[in-house]
Amino acid sequence: MLELQDVHTHYGLSHVLQGISLKVGPGEVVGLFGRNGVGKTTVIKTIAGWVRPSSGSMRFDGTDMTGAAPEQVCRHGIGLVPEDRRIFPGLTVEENLKLGLLQVPRRSRAASRGKLDEIYQRFPRLAERRRQMGTTLSGGEQQMLAMARVLAGAPKLLLIDEPTEGLAPMIVDELFELMAGLARDGIPIVLVEQNVQRAIALTQRYYLIERGQVTAQGESANAAHRADLLEKLSV
Ligand SMILES: Nc1ncnc2c1ncn2[C@@H]1O[C@H](COP(=O)(O)OP(=O)(O)OP(=O)(O)O)[C@@H](O)[C@H]1O
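The line above is the sequence of Branched-chain amino acid transport system ATP-binding protein; the predicted structure tokens follow.
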């Protein structure tokens, strides 16, 4: 479904991604793990078109998307939930979600309402707070809103970057439960998450990134692969 081949990305003279190749199949949840600063967010941003690769290729759903702009990537069905959440200030929870709904052009009023109801069922906390300003939500709730807004655009693949960073344990549990729900529903996800022990249980496969390269990959259910990953990350 998504395939990156030998992707190199630079920030100026800094050669951050040094030949990343990875695949995500239909319905697959794939983890990108690694220490701080190794390039995980840059992989996500490169897929989303926020950063242009200097070489290599990317295919999504049978289309060559190498170097595509963020809006094209988004239109092709890749939804990004960024690390900093980007909740629109001055808009309520529902207004934030309605902006997400606009991602799908020509959706009928009834279909939009249906989608919103579906989102509120998945995220009951957002339903309770639908009239509250988005930026007044707790960090964890803002993370839910960021996810829900992307889901309103009916993405074919989700990129989720560090969703639980800095959040209280209880809300972290809720977020993992929500992501498990998305996984059960067959929504493919690329997940960057520092909490590897929890995240590994959610993913089917993983890539370990070190210094801008994939240095290990494996099946999450394979005990030896898991042990190898946790050992390499010393967790
Ligand atoms: N806009 C930028 N300009 C220059 N260098 C950058 C930029 N963004 C990131 N970097 C550098 O690129 C490297 C990879 O950063 P990236 O954020 O992709 O890593 P990461 O693995 O996601 O780390 P973290 O877990 O800390 O977010 C780091 O050395 C970082 O300092």
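Note on the example: The chain has a mean pLDDT of 95. The CA atoms of residues 27 and 188 lie 4 Å apart.
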